[in-house]
Specification:
Largest sheet: 4 strands, antiparallel
Structural class: alpha+beta
Number of strands: 19
Radius of gyration: 36 Å
Helix content: 10-25%
Distance between the termini: 130 Å
């Protein structure tokens, strides 16, 4: 005779069966337990601990010292004017980098080096794993010649008025104008080295050291050479310079010649004078009016730096009254004068 089964026994067996069998078939959706995650991320509030009074005072003193150190660090951080916590190292050259220029948009960086190449960097195309130049150009290489000589790059500069033009100065008598992508647009002519009077030459007869762009005319630039001259060029006429400025050195034993090492052209856009300033190896600093005439300098400082030291940096303030130079005699000098009235 079968034993009757009650409702309670049936419910118990159903619960056991549900716990044993799967709740569904197929791929199950995974749901996150938000409440559990929040509880696990909460900080526990420790209760009051019994601590020796001596150790407690020592800990308080340490905390005060730490607070003072933190205050000092905050003051030091506030004194820093430029950001020093983030940097990117671009190892694109094999030798020392001598010059760098950035276009007006800040998207392209071009560097020159003693490895005789210029490197083109495009920031928009860079990633943390591809910090490299997208193109390398030898500005002194000759097409179709495998035995061409290469020379170090002294100076590169984007035109501030035209982002498509790049002035490149290598250790040759001929400066070049390159495009934004490194293609040669203009190569200035080399002068006749057998002519004694530099006014009769059409270009530099020896190595060019540096150059800069005209502040308001995108078609003009100026180059400085070791032939004791500054030459103003029109980039559309490469066969001869527009103006030649001869600096006659007064140093003993120089025979009236020296090397021009730096040049700067002040902009008259903001109300300052149009001034062209050059530095020479004999230590002199020479100034001409940017509008000419260039037969005689408007002002000259003979002992701006020590003789036979290379003045590698030169800049002019916006108002044209302050000239700052960086000399090879380990000094940086600035002067406040009314050079051009």
């Amino acid at each position: 005779m079968d034993r009757p089964t009650g409702d309670n026994e049936l419910s118990v067996s159903d619960e056991q069966l549900r716990s044993f069998l799967p709740t569904g078939f197929g791929k199950q959706a995974r749901t996150a337990n938000i409440a559990k995650q929040i509880d696990s991320s909460r900080r526990t509030n420790p209760g009051p601990s019994l601590q020796d009074p001596v150790e407690k005072d020592k800990d308080q003193a340490d905390d005060e010292n730490d607070d003072e150190d933190d205050d000092d660090d905050e003051e030091e951080e506030e004194e820093e004017e430029f950001p020093t916590t983030h940097e990117v190292l671009l190892k694109t050259h094999e030798r020392a980098v001598t010059t760098a220029t950035l276009d007006q948009s800040g998207s392209r960086l071009i560097t020159g080096s003693t490895d005789c190449t210029i490197k083109l960097h495009d920031f928009a195309a860079m990633t943390p794993t591809t910090l490299r130049a997208f193109k390398s150009v030898d500005p002194t290489a000759v097409k179709g010649s495998a035995a061409s000589e290469t020379h170090p790059v002294h100076h590169v500069a984007f035109c501030p008025l035209s982002a498509g033009h790049l002035l490149v100065v290598s250790a040759t008598p001929q400066a070049k104008i390159l495009s934004r992508d490194g293609d040669t647009l203009t190569e200035f002519v080399k002068g006749d080295m057998y002519l004694r009077d530099m006014h009769n030459t059409k270009g530099h007869i020896s190595e060019v050291t540096t150059g800069t762009w005209h502040p308001v005319d995108r078609n003009q630039c100026v180059t400085a050479g070791t032939d004791s001259t500054l030459r103003i060029w029109d980039i559309n006429f490469k066969r001869s310079q527009k103006e030649v400025i001869v600096h006659k050195s007064r140093a003993a034993g120089s025979a009236g010649r020296t090397r021009m090492t730096a040049v700067a052209w002040a902009s008259p856009v903001r109300g300052g004078p149009n001034v062209l300033v050059g530095a020479a190896l004999d230590g002199s600093l020479v100034m001409w009016s940017g509008n000419g005439p260039f037969t005689r300098p408007a002002a000259e400082i003979r002992d701006a730096h020590l003789k036979d030291t290379w003045t590698s940096g030169l800049d002019i303030s916006v108002d044209g009254r302050v000239v700052v130079t960086r000399g090879g005699d380990d000094t940086i000098k600035s002067g406040l004068k009314d050079y051009i009235q």
